[in-house]
Amino acid sequence: MSRFEYAPAPESRAIVDIKSSYGLFVNGAFVEATDGKPFKTVSPASEEVLAEVSEAGPADVDKAVRAARKAFEKVWGPMAGRDRAKYLFRIARLIQERARELAVLESLDNGKPIRESRDVDIPLVAAHFFYYAGWADKLEYAGAGEDPRPWGVAGQVIPWNFPLLMLAWKIAPALAAGNTVVLKPAETTPLTALAFAEICQQADLPPGVVNIVTGAGRTGQALVEHPDVNKVAFTGSTAVGRAIAKSVAGTDKAVTLELGGKAANIVFEDAPIDQTIEGIVNGIFFNQGHVCCAGSRLLVQESVYDEVLGRLKRRMETLRVGDPLDKNTDIGAINSAAQLARIRELAQIGEDEGSERWSPECELPAQGYWFPPTVFTGVSQAHRIAREEIFGPVLSVLTFRTPAEAVEKANNTPFGLSAGIWTEKGSRILWMANQLRAGVVWANTFNRFDPTSPFGGYKESGYGREGGRHGLEAYLAH
Amino acid sequence: MPTKDSGRLEVRKTYKLYVGGAFPRSESGRSYVVNNAKGKFLANASQASRKDARDAVVAARKAFGGWSAKTAYNRGQILYRIAEVMEGRHEQFSAEVAASEGLSIAKARGVVDASIDRWVWYAGWADKIAQVVGSSNPVAGPYFDFSLPEATGVVAVLAPQESSLLGLTSVIAPAIVSGNTVVAVSSFERPLPAVTLGEVMATSDLPGGVVNILTGSATEIGPWLASHLDVNAIDLAGIDDLDEARELEAAAAENLKRVRRPADEDWAESPGLSRLTQYLELKTVWHPIGV
């Protein structure tokens, strides 16, 4: 198939100034870690070392929690809601002012295409702070009673797939409600969280209100198990979420968990075909498939299977995989070597279990971590690629004949985060939306996010909601 | 215990489990002695086993689809019907509560009044909760976006040990009003009002399996319910021992159950919404707007 060639159109990285090393952000200042070793964060597109980052040990986490406690008791807790609101508005504006820099930094550290970090991640980050800023002086209307109180110190652990956006989902409602926070970014993507620490300084946010401790699982464990943390919020794998739920058992800690998913994206024979194909592509290849709510199980009505698959493959042939900073790139780099190994392993299992694997011809860069957009057909519900979260650009295709069968297959999973429905029939959309056991249902669209819109899962996809009034309620004691 | 002064020998009741709309004995064949507050024999109760708990979960799961799909109006009427039928058995409940909890008959009547009124209160919530906790979300784009609450699924309830009827009502009603189904373990020492409540439910148009009541030990059965992978939430109200509560919560983490931790609760107080909302999942639906 002939196609237009694109000239490279790279976004300049001159806009970011990455330091060679970073400390922890505790009590308003960058400090050296006392009991952990520094570690490196790399660009997954080139394996180039971007910076050295400090690993926070239990003693560092303790310092951060103490700073947060003090700030909660002395400054942030007693502060008038309207003033907390103004700080959050300031932060929202600073993010908008530095949006391009943050987008480039995010794409460098995470590997996601600049088109996504620039047009999706960072605008949503600013929008979240702007939205929750307005709640800070209106808490009595949030549904947690007439005299709502914050929990106190929130310990927050976030993943690497949307580093700054997940930070915003966690920090904005926590601060609006009057909590102070200690947040641990993922070990492979700490840089935008550290840039956010600078933004807190530029906003003159009182010391200790936001503390950022970098590190891996050990640091996160020290944080969620710290006895002086009142509220735990985690986004990440179901396995780690389960461990956190176990570790807080018997405590007074409030917990919200946003975990894995294996969303069904369901295509009926009357679906608007062009939009549907775009929706399928967006559902699974957005952010390299590193999305907990990704539409990773495509359920196609048998009567349109051939047409949908044919068009999907044609569309996949036009996807451009490569340099995250190139504005033409559709699919960037896999975030880490470990994640790439996991995707490869599950894809191999898919083949071994008898599914048929297909990827468009595409040249992958020699350096860095890459995986081509991939579709598996002939997948049965028992196959591991239909049951386990792959967290990569890998789509498993199953078929169905009746709406009831589609519901049965869609709900046949321990997860329950999201689902998609494609049909022109309004009554069927509403019936399906009713039947699907998932926290977010996208009908004739997919992977939409908004700060006013609650997000979170059923069953083993976790509990609690982020976004909207419900997301605020999660940070208020009641 | 209903006694008669007429000299007629009374017909006593056999107290059994309530599972799937039927009243079986424990499959284990076990029963245990239930005494009144002064230590005098009242009855033998079935002592539910692990197998009974699993059967009850199967019944609750089977009932979930139909119960949660009923209109909220219909569910509200059925909860109200429970109150109506309880009212007709007021004397029986009062006698059982008085004997079990060691209350004067006057105080026991007050507890039964409060229990019936609580069913009425929750009945009214069935078709209102979605408007209170749901929302329309003004997203920044051409999409219609709304959030509505749905039932979590099968809820295991370890009912309060002291408050044998009002406490039990206060933990079952908030779960079923929104469409959840329940497996409840009654107070161990005061199980008789729970069995009678099951008999009320069986005659109140409540579909079999929506509420299943096991008499027996929460300490024995609790761990099997907490670790059961087809249970979606658990209420630890009846667990007084903190270590036991911690272990049950840890076991419940295996499939990320929603856990209601035990707390000092005054069941006579107005319950508020937190228990009702604990067993709700919020679903957000998006659709594009266009011509």
Structure, described:
The complex is a heterodimer of chains A (478) and B (291). By secondary structure, chain A is α/β, with parallel strands linked by helices. Chain A has two domains: 13-259 and 458-477, Aldehyde Dehydrogenase, Chain A, domain 1 (3-Layer(aba) Sandwich); 264-443, Aldehyde Dehydrogenase, Chain A, domain 2, CATH 3.40.309. Chain A contains 15 helices and 20 strands. The longest helix of chain A is centred in the first third of the chain and has 20 residues, at 114-133. The radius of gyration of chain A is 22 Å and the shape is globular. The N and C termini of chain A lie far apart (61 Å). Chain B is an alpha/beta fold. Chain B has helices at 50-69, 72-88, 90-101, 105-125, 129-133, 166-176, 192-202, 218-226, 242-252, 274-278; strands at residues 31-35, 41-46, 135-136, 143-151, 154-158, 181-185, 211-214, 233-235, 258-260, 280-288. In chain B, the strands form three sheets. Chain B has a five-stranded parallel sheet with strand order 7-6-5-8-9, sandwiched between helices. A three-stranded antiparallel sheet of chain B has the order 3-4-10. In chain B, helix 1 (50-69) packs across helix 8 (218-226), helix 3 (90-101) crosses helix 4 (105-125) and helix 8 packs parallel to helix 9. Classes of the chains: A alpha/beta (478), B alpha/beta (291). Chains A and B meet through helix 8, strand 18, strand 19 and helix 15 of A and strand 4, helix 9 and strand 10 of B. Strand 18 of chain A pairs parallel with strand 10 (280-288) of chain B, so a sheet runs across the interface.
Main sheet: strand order of chain A: 14-15-16-13-12-17-18
The CATH architecture of chain B can be named as 3-Layer(aba) Sandwich
The N- to C-terminal Cα distance of chain B equals: 69 Å
By CATH, the architecture of the largest domain in chain A is named 3-Layer(aba) Sandwich
The total tally of domains of chain A equals: 2
Rg result of chain A: 22 Å
What is the CATH homologous superfamily assignment of the largest domain in chain A?
A: Aldehyde Dehydrogenase, Chain A, domain 1
Class derived from helix and strand content of chain A = alpha/beta
Poorly predicted residue ranges of chain A: none
CATH fold title of chain B:
Aldehyde Dehydrogenase, Chain A, domain 1
Tally of alpha and pi helices of chain B: 10
Could you tell me the strand content of chain A as a percent range?
A: 15-25%
Oligomer: heterodimer
- CATH class identity of chain B: Alpha Beta
Largest interface comes to: A-B, 42 and 37 residues
Radius of gyration of chain B: 20 Å
Give the spatial strand order of the biggest sheet of chain B: 7-6-5-8-9
Main pleated sheet of chain B = 5 strands, parallel
Order of helices and strands of chain B: EEHHHHHEEEHEHEHEHEHE
